[in-house]
Structure prediction request, 615 residues.
Amino acid sequence: MIRLQNIEKVYRTNTVETMALNSISLNVAKGEFLSIMGPSGCGKSTLLNIIGLLDAPSKGEIKIDDQKTDHMSDKQLANFRNKKLGFIFQSYHLINDLKVLDNVELPLLYRTSSGSERKKLASAALEKVGLSNRVKHFPTQLSGGQKQRVAIARAIVGNPEIILADEPTGNLDSAMGNEIMDILQYLNTTEGATIIMVTHDENMAKRTHRLVRLFDGSQVQ
Amino acid sequence: MIKHLFKLIWNKKKQNFLLMTEMLVSFIVMFAIFTLLVYYYQNYNRPIGLDYDNVWNLGYGSPQGMSDADSIANFRESIKQTIISMPQVEGVSFSDANIPYGDANIGTMIAYNKVNWPSEMYTADDNYQKVLNITLNEGRWFSKIDDASREKPIVINETFKERVFGRESAVGKIMSDAAFGKGTMKVIGVMNDMKDKGDYAGPQNGYFRRMDTSNTGGGGIILIKVKPTADAAFESRLYKTLSNLMRNTSIDIKHMDKERTKRNTQLLGPIIVLLIIAGFLIINVALGLFGVLWYNINKRKNEIGLRRAVGASGAGISKQLMGEALVLSTISLLVGAFFAVQFPLLNVFNIASGTYIIAIILDILFIYFLVLVCSLYPGRQAAAIYPAEALHED
Ligand SMILES: Nc1ncnc2c1ncn2[C@@H]1O[C@H](COP(=O)(O)OP(=O)(O)OP(=O)(O)O)[C@@H](O)[C@H]1O
Ligand SMILES: [Mg+2]
Prediction:
């Protein structure tokens, strides 16, 4: 499903060069639930961003669904993300000026779909994460766990094959974290989503199929 | 997507209020400026309606030591004959002080069918029309025939005629002096408007009375149409001759074309100052708009990153930001246009509706242009941000 070959990422600022990723090669199979762990600053987010086509590697090649991505235009990349990928972030990244339902509908706005269709799909996604009773709320009126569930609903509303989650439970207590984890596990087992999750929590990592450890930009496990 | 933009704007109405107020204020200020500019421009384009070239204004004080009408009339006639006999002179006309580009304005009220009309009043003799090459639309100018008429003959200008009589013919209509309440006046002719108050002055009601050359009071002005060959030497000769003739009064000679230029510069000065102020205002507004839009992008970096992640292209982001700015400006413009439209509806300042309408249209285009220009660069900048960078957690 996802193939990384010798990925390297170097950040250059005026004074320093940071090697954020150093020759990472990784294969993720369809339906796999993979977790990535490692100390802070080791390059986990960078790796996830590169897999999610939000950032380009300095070297190396990424294939998703057997499609090479390095020659895609900005528009093609956007389209690709819209159709194939769902994102979940530690700090949720909800738009505070939009109601829950509108937040969830967001990915569908970048496709051709009717308003009623969008509403139907968004409601269904919210139902899956157990938030049907909060559609008219604004994000600021929700708890952290609820916000993350909205973010999950938004990630799955377009029915992507791959879900990328960067510390989705990082801001939540363990009970809430477990609830989020339950949802992700459900999406993986029942709906067949391929999931890559960055986490700091060994317990969460244990609930996934496979663990990749990074240290200082290199894969150590 | 439009609906989405509206939702977003509506939910952020508090933040957007300031920006919209700024747009609204700029619209209103620019409306005033555009109205003035359009007004001046339209006036400038109206025909001048008189021939000021080679016309000299000879001002003279009241003739002293003469009290009976006959001797004054004779005195004036002899001056006229003296001037007209000079080979460089083509025509001579007596007028009161209210001559084109002069310093005098004489306003009065005249009535028709019990309705009072404010009007500029001029007093001139039978030769005035020829000296200034004024064209008539209807009827005739003053002549000897009027010596015998019971009513005082008057010639009104086209603007006045249209306002009072509309499409009807004005010749033969009887009007009355509303300011002094005495005497009836008969319209004998309708002349084309003359822009005697300067090239940028607007149309104004005006009428001419026939000059009574035996009038004992006051001085006046003699308009002298000279040949193009008339030079400074001739001018000094003329001056000497007339000084001798009118020994008891002072005289001076001015050139009408120079007076016109003077008058125009007097009016142009304030316009230029206004334009400079407007220029600064525009720069200010543009910087303000630019600043707010620029600030928006930085404040909304996370939102931009997220939209990029869920499928917006860079161009899509840029379009969205510009779309928001355009929706905001459209709302402001609608409010502004509502106020601006009251001016032609209520006929404020006696300016033609068309002038206001053109000003409103220009103003709308201008504000849109300004918003577009000011959001272009911030929009581009937003489009260029890498999604990963925009999503960076801080
Ligand atoms: N935009 C950037 N410019 C320069 N350096 C960067 C940039 N983004 C990340 N880095 C550097 O790259 C390295 C990897 O960062 P990354 O965010 O991937 O770490 P991480 O493993 O996700 O850490 P954390 O667990 O704290 O989220 C760090 O040293 C970081 O300072
Ligand atoms: Mg990280």
